[in-house]
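note to self: dont lose this again. the chain is below, predicted strucutre after it. 283 aa total, dont forget to put it in the shared folder this time
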Amino acid sequence: MDAPLFLRPTTIGEALRALAMPGIRILAGGTDFYPVQGERPIAEPVLDVTAIAELRGIAIGRDEIRIGGGTSWSAIIAAKLPACFDALKQAAREVGSVQIQNRGTIAGNLCNASPAADGVPPLLALDASVELVSRASARRMALADFITGNRRTERRSDEIVSAIVVPRSIDGPSCFLKLGARRYLVISIAMVAAILERDGKGLIAQARIAVGSCSDVAQRLSNLERDLVGKPCAAGIGKQVAAGHLADLSPIDDVRATAAYRIDAARTLIGRALERCVAGVAR
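---
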């Protein structure tokens, strides 16, 4: 049997033309690609996008910040970004080991669409959009619409995620917290990202809270966000989190935790994340 075709283009145009090949699979960092493959031989053609410089890098504009889809977690950690991106950086440090952070890409994390993908809650809290390109067109869609379920996205087979775009619509400290069976190299039981913006009177002007590992797709807690607006941006804010604020979550029972434990853990993590955001405002 012939070995599968392996392509490594250097431009997006070349990569998009290659996607016309039936059954071709995109390979970025490979940190999800190879574990899913297991010991099975690769039978399909592979499109390695790691040599495409256009897919890497972070561009900071006046109205938005654009992160190339092929940008590694290590590059995100090293970048000089506003405080609202601190949660994303903290999540990046939780993506496996340093070696994994050096190879894994932000678009790969989103396209893998795991309910426990560390990058999703902080990007949801940032109101991020996903930019997709094909030979025929380019489009953007909200990250909340892009991931549709466990391992499912709206990416078409002829598209590449070229960038993640974040509007500069909130200004304030952020925090990402994750609970697992151990401190590092672990799939989360629950994780949260929070951002708080304070107005000139010391009140919360905006709040963004997202929870992962507690439903098929990470979710923003819009009811809690709305209820926090106008509250004093001060210590004790974590006590505002009520059980009803988590009603839309749908965690499962599995080998890591029960659904009830996940809900309780998420509520605790949200409270702690909000307190850390308040402490960040005070600095």
